[in-house]
UniProtKB/TrEMBL annotation:
It holds the Pfam family Abhydrolase_1. Residues 1-23 are annotated as: Disordered. Residues 64-164 form the AB hydrolase-1 domain. Signal peptide: none annotated. It comes from Streptomyces albidocamelliae. Keywords: Hydrolase. The keyword Hydrolase applies. GO terms for molecular function: hydrolase activity. The keyword Methyltransferase does not apply. PANTHER family: HYDROLASE, ALPHA/BETA FOLD FAMILY PROTEIN, NON-HEME CHLOROPEROXIDASE. This is Alpha/beta hydrolase. Gene3D superfamilies: alpha/beta hydrolase.
Amino acid sequence: MSNGPAGHVARSTVRPNSETSRRAPIRTFLHSADGIPIDSVYDPGAVVYESLPDTVRTAARDLVFVIAHGFTGEADRPHVRRVARVLRRRGAVVTFSFRGHGRSGGRSTVGDKEVLDLAAAVAWARGFGHARVVTVGFSMGGSVVLRHAALYPGTVDAVVSVSAPARWYYRGTAPMRRLHWLVTRPAGRLVGRYGLRTRIHHRAWDPVPLSPAEAVPGIAPAPLLIVHGDRDGYFPLDHPRMLAGAAGEHGELWIEPGMGHAENAADDALLARIGDWAATAAG
């Protein structure tokens, strides 16, 4: 396996080792530190591959991805399952539904208390014996993985944030203005509950949590990858550039041509590159 021109590990054709046939996923409810039940799935996949070099094969066996979905997502959404399917070529995968989403309890705080949900999922993933844990977050989940890595230093080995905001209360695009209506208005929260299966808390943040850009310096020395599309309709390019600037030498920025926003816009090729980056960076 060789490195490509951009420094990414080139993909090779892999086939599962016959001695390590894929095991069934494990599904359970975790509990966050504040007692919210979090619907979670651990998929060990087939994590040993005959055609990979020894170093990469070992990394695949030891590596687990914890996927943090975007606002209104959940563990069973097709785009979240697709992300998991691609990433498990490089390791095991944990998916979960943030509070207020899907079958999880509680109500969404749109990126604040969700850091407790991710902390529970990361601890669960580590408990399966994996030596390396990589968090991969999208949009709201992208902001959560940044804050989690800063607030829980040493618990993850690499962080990938896709389509994340750099600062709170951004209303500079039409989609973000609609999202603020959804979150702050009673009628919007009804739409969220019955139309989007997302139960949103009615209380405003108090105190306002650390912003993603403020959190980023605290992630070092863990490697950080920031991914953003140049056609993102929610957050323009000043957001990823602000995050990359805050990361300094510990961060890497990919601006993806033609890409829109979050999981739906991240194609399989990009997800595979993210998986390759993580397998190298976390090792």
